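User: Hi! Is it possible to get a structure for several chains at once, not just one? Here's what I have:
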Amino acid sequence: MWLSQLAILPNISLSPAAGSRIPRMTLTAIDWVIIAIYLAGCVGAGIRTRRYVRDLNDFALAGRQVDVNLGVASLAATEIGIVTVMYTGEMGFKSGLAGAAPGVLLCLAMLIVGMTGFVIEPLRDAGVVTIPELFEKRFGTKVRWLAGLVVVLGGVLNMGIFLRLGGEFLMYITGLSPKASFSLSLLGQQWQLGLLEATMTFLLVLILIYTVLGGMVSVLVTDYLQFLVKGLGIVIISVVVFWNINPLSLIEGLDAVQSQTRTAVNMTMTDPFNPFHSLGYGWVIWQSLLALAVMTTWQTIVARALAAKDASVAKRIYRGTAFYFVGRFSLPGLWGAAAFLYFASAAVGGLPEGIGSLAAMPVYLGRILPAGILGIVVVAMLAAEMSTDSGYLLTWATVIYNDLVSPCLKHPMSQRSKLLTVRLLLVAIGIFLLFYGLWYRIPGRAWDYLSVTGNIYLASVFTLLVGALYWKRANSWGALASIVLGAIGPITFLVINAIVEDPARQISPETAGLSAFGMAFAGMFFGSLAGRMAGIGTAVRATEVDR
Amino acid sequence: MRFLLAWFWMCLILASILWYAFLLFYVGIKGGTEIISLGKNLSRRPEGEDGPGTCAP
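Assistant: Yes, the chains can be modeled jointly so their relative placement is included. Here is the combined structure:
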């Protein structure tokens, strides 16, 4: 119905999903105007930047001209997407305020890296475009190519759920079911389209338009706009949540959770304040390692350090963004914890039918946000989705070209061909995401899925980076062993947990994650020793890598 | 201990809200001027000049 009112498409009717208890859309005409202006402004600003792109260096790294505050805005915008809000909200819903523990660990890791320059300083000084490029200098082309492969595999699989979760959030917060569909009569044919899928596709097309044309420059400009809109939305939602349940009532409510069972409403929360109790010691140790690996090797984060004017600016960007990561977990976690208390209350009596822990928070927000605010919040969340997707698409397309395609070429491409190739890769990743996002079902918590898929490369690439930069005995044998062994644990987790349905027999995420780090370290150590003994490992001294 | 942990998280949440609100203005103003400088720097380069670290090969 709402689409027909906008007269965008002819003869469209919206039908709610069968059995859905979410009956109507809560957006008003003013909300739609705000959304339309925002989308047009973002795409327009992004497209205007295409004139600055002359070569791949401009396209991938904005000519390495990024200063501190723009870097902070872009990094913060890229690393908070709707998917972030969804999984951190789920952490709050399941683990209470303790669910914000990864945010504190990420903040500490970022501060340490920002103060010491650990990894990022020599990485920026090396003048590389991607991390695997550095590996070629130390370990040879094969290692670069294999590292590029696991980086892309982990990164694209990780990004695979972004669109689906983003679409679900937008559906729930606007009062629609993700299963809602609409029929479209066009050219004499009747089409039945899923609303979520259509929304995701439309959003992705907009993102692709400006990212394909403007590359990193357009990502920076749109990230800046999205940082402002998203920051405003996050602050507004948090204030409204505290308006709905004051801090004291929240703490008292969560404190009571531990002494009362919520089985009547089929909701559980183990310990809302102590992450060691609710999430386990193994999980926290894994997350600590992961936090350090993320801050030094996650390509979308490192891309900002590489795009910085120099290493000093890169370190300042890290220090300036560090505390943002606490809010990245604690604020949506607050909304999730408040959602738990809301649905656990006697007045509400549990989660609505078909709503799980992941969707509880957006459904809750959809119910408490006042009319007029909702449009701003939806725009804020659109901003979150767009900034993350554009940054990630650009990063993975650049890695594919730079580390998988480029080393295989016998003759150098012209600048025009390079740009065209990366732009086509961007579109190809977008198409893959659309289809992967539609059918893949996440095993367990969303954050665990993201951590484990990221772990496919984080453990090995982190080990390789530390080895390349700080261990003079590291060689190509160790690097290859580290890449292969580091990927085994997370990939086994994904495959086994997709096949085995009994949660008791599934692999825990911390087992997969910690084993990945352990095997990657062991691979690097023993592989390098073996290569040295055999006298065939390729190695360049660490000091030469910096040049 | 439980009480301290509860308020530790609550303080972090409140500090995050304030930090986000502060960055909204601070980075909002500073970042805007840096975008203008970025555009000027990128436009000012002579034709044919590539930046450092141009992708190989």
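The first helix of chain A runs from residue 2 to 6. Chain A touches chain B through 65 residues (CB under 8 Å).

User: Great, thank you!
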